[in-house]
Amino acid sequence: MSATRRQVLATGASVAGIAFTGAVSELFAGTAAAQEMGRSGYGPLVPDPDGLLDLPKGFRYRVLSRTGDELRSGEGEVPSNPDGMAAFAGRRGRVHLVRNHENRASASIGVP
After folding, report:
1. Cβ-based neighbour number of residue 112 at 10 Å
2. Ranges of the chain whose pLDDT falls below 70
3. Which residue from 76, 79, 66 is spatially nearest to 109, judged by alpha carbons?
């Protein structure tokens, strides 16, 4: 039985929600309630010199692709209008990142 796009996205959303719940308490670690529990959070955000993403000291990020970059498959460009993403554990420590893009007629770069 094959899954519809809607079923795949719904499953991905629920899996992403489960994976995210482990970190929910850390998101609010700077709140008064968290302070009472003895947590101090990750500290203040440090302004990103590139102006993309401010993170706490000691954290870093890496841009994997941007709208218009060539797809790894070589079959087009990364579409515009991204609207969802989830990460799944793969074999040998790999992670599979799945991104969804709205397929709009008005998109600057459509979904291939």
Report:
1. 12
2. 1-40
3. 79
